Amino acid sequence: MRVETPKLLALLAIPLIALLQPYRPMVILGHSMEPTLADRSVVLLDTAYRHGRNLCPGDVVAADVDGMTLVKRVYATGGMRMAGVLGRDQVEGRAMMASHPTRPFYQVPDGYVFLVGDNTRDSYDSRDFGPVPMDAVIGKVVG
After folding, report:
1. Cis bond leading into 35, ω under 30°?
2. Confidence band (pLDDT; 50, 70, 90) for 122?
3. Neighbours of 33 (CB within 10 A)
4. pTM value?
5. Which of 4, 48, 49, 55 has the least C-beta neighbours within 10 A?
6. What is the C-alpha to C-alpha distance for residues 46 and 129, in angstroms, rounded to an integer?
7. Assigned fold of 22-141
8. Chain segment 64-91, per-residue pLDDT in tens
9. Domain ranges of the chain
10. Are 22 and 41 spatial neighbours (Cβ–Cβ below 8 Å)?
11. What b-and-e string marks burial along 88-114, b requiring 16 or more CB atoms within 10 Å of the CB?
12. Which of 46, 94, 37, 111 is nearest to 71 (CA)?
């Protein structure tokens, strides 16, 4: 059996290229990002943003939190101050974090992001578990 070298190289290159691509599909489970991302919708995750590189408020990311992969919007990044009144953040007045005392401002620690779901009434997010280390970010939703 004779196999031409270019064809063999092409066959070997296809899986390698697929593994090296920074994109991977992900299925959204739950309602916390509605109406932006519906339950069971498929999105494309860019893993080049792994560990929170170059993230800005407003970006939608996937992060590993307490053994779960969550998709949330970046509300604030390390060093940013969030205004709050009586321990509540500015997102529909929901309690920001029970672990922090009441104070007018909360500053996100360097190396962390504060994540909030778009469906603020039905979202388990940083208001519940606090800021997330940048190392927990596994990618940015790009499509």
Report:
1. yes
2. confident
3. 25
4. 0.74
5. 4
6. 24
7. Umud Fragment, subunit A (2.10.109)
8. 999 999 999 999 999 998 875 333 344 4
9. 22-141
10. no
11. ebebeeeebbeeeeeeeebebeeebbb
12. 37
